[in-house]
Amino acid sequence: MKVADSTILVTGANRGLGKALVEESLRRGAKRVYAGARQPFTHADRRVVPLVLDVTNAAQIRAAVEKVDALDILVNNAGISLQNDLGDRAALERLLAVNLFGTYDVTQAFLPILTRSRSAIVNVLSLASIAAVPFDSLYSISKAAAFSLSQSLRALLAGRGVGVHIVLAGPLDTDMARNLDIPKASPELTARAIFGGVENEDEEIFPDPMSEAVAEGWRSGAVKALQRQFAAYVASDMFATLPQVSGPTRETAAKDAAQNTPKR
């Protein structure tokens, strides 16, 4: 999947990594970039189409779907970190609403457009998806759930021409990690590595020095092998008698998103 001449949608696009992803897609020659953010903003490049898009807001998801006629790459980047105590259920629900259900709802809403031609979904997650960070346990839980969702989407959508890339990033120099006194990667270099991984068709993308250190071990490890084994079941006759996975039509996408968005 090449970024040049493609149409891309990035959520959480007005700052941090999201902003860097927009700029990197333009640098690589994207034809159009839909930039979703919770608040209205403008961009100097005429290829950028800002969208008011809170991934927990079903009405805004519906409006975004209606404005996008074609889509080659969906980048689910929007996410939050609260660094709350493990016992704070309300905080966990808020994190899941954005980091899990936000990714789920946006993906389901745009799936009919994505399946029209060969396309890609890029879910921006974290190393916390595969190894919990104790001082940010709720964030780790939400990202681990999104990781499982992403693996399932990859296996179930492969037959429909949609690739799913999982970004397992380390700490980045953004507002989300501003209180962490540890080495952090720049959003710009991370965005460059992410789109490089997409163009290289990497299933998991390790876009910074910390994550790159575990990349080879992950790709050759037992967990990845088991993931491939489970995914192979989908392509076999083992589940031929089960109902086929299907996404919503364009007309019902927003309705489905509304039904699946958790109440807060």
What this model shows, in words?
By secondary structure, the chain is α/β, with parallel strands linked by helices. The chain has one domain: NAD(P)-binding Rossmann-like Domain (Rossmann fold), CATH 3.40.50.720. It has helices spanning about 15-25, 60-65, 90-100, 100-115, 135-155, 185-200, 210-220, 220-235, 255-260; strands at about 5-10, 30-35, 50, 75, 120-125, 160-165, 205. It has a seven-stranded parallel sheet with strand order 3-2-1-4-5-6-7, sandwiched between helices. Strand 6 (about 160-165), helix 6 (about 185-200) and strand 7 (about 205) form a beta-alpha-beta unit. Helix 3 packs parallel to helix 5 and helix 5 (about 135-155) runs parallel beside helix 8. It is globular, with a radius of gyration of 18 Å. The N and C termini lie far apart (about 35 Å). Residues about 250-255 and about 260-264 have low confidence and may be disordered.
Could you give a short description of this structure?
The protein has 264 residues and is of the alpha/beta class. The protein has one domain: NAD(P)-binding Rossmann-like Domain (Rossmann fold, 3-Layer(aba) Sandwich), CATH 3.40.50. The chain is built from nine helices and seven strands, in the order βαββαβααβαβαβααα.
